[in-house]
From TrEMBL:
It is an enzyme of class 2 (transferase). Its EC number is 2.4.-.-. This is Glycosyltransferase family 4 protein. It comes from the Bacteria. Keywords: Glycosyltransferase, Transferase. It comes from Massilia orientalis.
Length: 457
């Protein structure tokens, strides 16, 4: 049972929104909803974009900054507060489609954000000042930063504020921000300021898998004892819910219930390695292995890679059921009717929300033997899918063929999926976060530095 102090917590979640349901946004909003349902006050501070419909009614929303703030290397309050507000009068889908039509523009915004935080002696003081004013107005006691790379912003807001609060950093894709820092020649400063923000927090920083913790230690010079593993949580599928195949017809005309469906669901960006899946599908087509390939999902960086995939499928003479964003209902129906779901990523994935979601619907998965994603499909000796050699389209084809042709293997893996997915409930994630906050507070005091040793939460 929570103490009175715990029950009066006010959580401010600073998240970098997107026009579609990206993994970090989904994770942050699931956390926000669960905290709200447990009686905490929750406020969401959005950066770049907004996805307020993912949040429970009653949760407050604030716009911390619009993407236009980082149109130039120097942050612009005018472009943020004036031009950004005007652009937000347009429908969200139109805004997102327009921005993503400009190849490389989203990367430019993120690169300018990193330059503002790590390449200027004063950082982005204007945004830090706005953050501290919002936190004071909302009475926030606990600030949860969606990305650890935003740590200097939280630290600067804390330094200039008379309102007391502490912040928790989460690593969930921060290697992308580190890559921007490297391109800008700011990697050393990125490491220095990131570690400064980590040390100033009252709590260890969250990492979303054990492998990702190892990666952060190796690549960002972060001490291992300043990190705590908290796996992401997903909304679990209910077995009793039946998803009609007919619901897939409008999104994927011509899709048949009579042939096995192999699905990719997720961001359509270059690091996701979807081209490897196309090469593997071509190899299987030459072996006359029957399958229907479905590729769908949003993009964070524009439609260039999706156009590459269309061209590649044409050159490989592949029929692909290819779509962009789909509704949650269509996505769940696709999971439920897929023979397997493939994650062909060439990135060292920190976690794998799609993989956990697919298994919760009973679909076996195929993932690379690289990164934290392998932790998601394994529970002791039980597996909810197969591994393939990372970056190897030939081995991807071999393992996919096993899933398509070896029926006893497929049944065994499918039988494990739901039980393995239940390790990744939203409640488990929230319990781990709250336990981390409480344990570190008892050990160090609310404003002390990171403890010397932390057990994975």
């Amino acid at each position: 049972m929570e103490t009175m102090m715990e029950s009066t917590r006010t959580f401010a979640i600073v998240t970098m929104g997107s026009g579609d349901y990206l993994g970090s946004t989904v994770r942050d909003l699931a956390l926000a909803n669960a905290l709200w349902r447990r009686g905490h006050k929750v406020v969401i501070y959005w950066m770049m974009e907004v996805n307020a419909e993912l949040a429970d009614p009653g949760i407050a929303h604030r716009m911390l900054c619009h993407g236009t703030r980082y149109h130039f290397a120097t942050p612009s309050g005018f472009l943020d507060q004036c031009v950004g507000r005007l652009l937000f009068l347009l429908p969200r889908r139109l805004r997102v489609r327009t921005i993503q039509a400009r190849s490389g523009y989203v990367d430019r915004l993120l690169r300018n954000l990193i330059h503002a935080l790590y390449g200027r002696p004063e950082g982005d003081r204007g945004l830090a000042r706005r953050l501290q004013r919002l936190l004071a107005r909302d009475g926030a006691s606990h600030v949860l930063m969606s990305f650890a790379a935003l740590g200097p912003l939280a630290l600067e807001a804390q330094r200039m504020s008379t309102h007391e609060f502490d912040y928790l950093l989460t690593f969930q894709g921060d290697e992308q921000f580190a890559a921007h820092a490297k391109q800008l020649g700011l990697l050393d400063e990125f490491h220095r300021l990131l570690n400064e923000a980590i040390r100033a927090s009252a709590w260890p920083s969250v990492v979303v898998s054990a492998d990702y913790a190892d990666r952060i230690v190796a690549e960002m010079d972060v001490p291992r004892d300043s990190l705590a593993v908290v796996y992401n949580g997903i909304v679990q599928s209910e077995r009793k819910v039946k998803h009609s195949f007919a619901s897939l017809k409008s999104a994927f005309p011509g899709l048949s219930p009579h042939y096995p469906i192999v699905a990719y669901v997720g961001r359509q960006d270059a690091e996701k390695g979807i081209d490897l899946l196309l090469y593997a599908a071509r190899l299987l087509a030459r072996r006359n292995t029957a399958m229907q390939l479905v590729i769908c999902g949003s993009t964070a960086k524009g439609g260039t890679y999706r156009k590459v995939l269309d061209d590649l499928a044409t050159h490989l003479d592949l029929k692909v059921f290819h779509a962009g964003s789909i509704s949650i209902e269509t996505r769940d129906a696709l999971y439920a009717h897929s023979h397997c779901v493939v994650c062909p990523s060439v990135n060292r994935e920190p976690f794998g929300l799609v993989v956990a979601e697919a298994m919760s619907h009973g679909a076996p998965v195929l993932v690379p033997d690289y990164g934290g994603i392998g932790e998601v499909i394994r529970d002791g000796e039980k597996m909810g899918g197969l591994l393939f050699k990372a970056w190897d389209s030939g081995d991807l084809a071999t393992q996919l063929e096993r899933l398509l042709l070896d029926r006893p293997l497929h049944r065994r893996l499918a039988g494990n999926t739901r039980a393995i997915a239940k390790r990744f409930t939203v409640d488990n994630m929230v319990d781990a976060v709250l336990n981390l906050l409480e344990t570190a507070t008892r050990r160090t005091g609310a404003s002390a530095a990171t403890p010397d040793a932390v057990t994975d939460a």
